[in-house]
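Hi Y.,

Following your request, here is the sequence exactly as I used it, all 206 residues.
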Amino acid sequence: MTNPTRDQLLSAAARLYGEHGFRGTTTRRIAEEAQVNEVTIFRLFGSKSALLLEAIRTHGTDVSDDQLPLTPRDPLSELTAWSAHQRSTLRSMRSMIRKAMSEFEEHPDMPKCMENGANTVHTRLYRYFERMQELNLIDPKADVRAATAMLLSSLFHDAIARDMYPDLFPHPSSSAPAIYSRLALRSLGCNLPAAARETTRRRRAS
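Below is the corresponding structure, written out as C-alpha cells. Let me know if you'd prefer a different format.
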C-alpha cells in the first residue's frame, strides 16, 4: 500500500538533494517542498540521513526499461533502443548522481544506494551478450564482461557529462546510442550482416 505523504517526502528530498547536496537539503526545505509538517519527516524516517538514503534508493535506481530479449534477433536495433532508454534514464537522474559522486568521501552511502539498480542493468546486458555468444552471433572468445563495461561506461559518461563537455561526444546526440552499440558489438566480433541472416534463418525455422 502506498503512502502519499511518504512518497511526497521522498520525491521532494530527491529533487532537493540533486540541487543542493546533503548539507543544503535541510529537513525544513524538504518539508516545505513536500507541503508537510517537518515533524512528519522524523516520524516516518527518523532522521534526515535516513530520508535521503531512501530517496536516492527510490529515485536513483530506475531499472524499468524494456528488457533486452532472451533470444537476440536484431542485435543492433535491440541494443540501440535499450541504450537510448538507459541514457535517457541516467540523464533524468544526473543531478542526483553528480551530487552523490561529489560527496562520496563525506557520505559514501549515498552513491551506494544506486548500486542495486546499476547491478541489475549490468546483469541484463551481460546476459544478453552471453546469449549472443551461445547462439554463435559473436566471437566465442570475446570478452563479454569488458564489452558490457565499455558500453555502460559510454552511456553513463554521455548522460552525466555531455552538457558540460559537448564536444567530447557524438553529434547529433540522438546518434550516440547506435554508435556506442555498434562499437560494442564490433568489439565482440559481431558480424552484423551475418547476425541478421542468422536470426532470419532462425525465425523461419521456428
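The two ends are 43 Å apart (CA to CA).

Thanks again,
Q.
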